[in-house]
Amino acid sequence: MSNPITSADIQLIQRIIPHRYPFLLVDKVIDIDGTTSATGIKNVTMNEPHFQGHFPGTPIMPGVTIIEAMAQTSAVMVGATMGLMDKNMLIYFMGIDGCKFRRKVVPGDVLTMKVETTRGKPGGKVWKFKGVATVDGELAAEAEFTAMMDMQS
């Protein structure tokens, strides 16, 4: 039996989830503990296209992209643990609950996203997660979200 995957660099992330620039919103995933929990890292840079319009002169990462980054972290955690590399997995939001934003996320920040599975099991399609995003230890956003993981043929 091979060793469990406990981290994913950008190359492995791209083998698990279909997202690409400009919508690939996680740079690496660390501390993967099976399908239980993981931590995503997103280096926020001024080069990202949403900063041209959100907001000119005062760039702020859109809240919806922070939630999406947490969801991508969750998908990488599940995909890495279940060996879903190169399997054309698509992931669809089914619900977002208890979403709160507490701090602006701006270029230069490192967004740390801790996610944990609250419902779901290997082989299942519907999963529920709780995510917390921080910058320098300060709470930036939190949400619970439900997603369906769909394997394409």
TrEMBL record:
Its main location: cytoplasm. One of its GO terms (molecular function) is (3R)-hydroxyacyl-[acyl-carrier-protein] dehydratase activity. Gene3D superfamilies: Hotdog Thioesterase (3.10.129.10). The keyword Cytoplasm applies. It is found in: Cytoplasm. GO terms for cellular component: cytoplasm; membrane. GO terms for biological process: fatty acid biosynthetic process; lipid A biosynthetic process. It catalyses: a (3R)-hydroxyacyl-[ACP] = a (2E)-enoyl-[ACP] + H2O. It comes from the Bacteria. SUPFAM superfamilies: Thioesterase/thiol ester dehydrase-isomerase. Keywords: Cytoplasm, Lipid A biosynthesis, Lipid biosynthesis, Lipid metabolism, Lyase. Its EC number is 4.2.1.59. Pfam families: FabA. Involved in unsaturated fatty acids biosynthesis. Catalyzes the dehydration of short chain beta-hydroxyacyl-ACPs and long chain saturated and unsaturated beta-hydroxyacyl-ACPs. Belongs to the thioester dehydratase family. FabZ subfamily. This is 3-hydroxyacyl-[acyl-carrier-protein] dehydratase FabZ. The lineage of its organism: Bacteria, Pseudomonadati, Pseudomonadota, Alphaproteobacteria, Rhodobacterales.
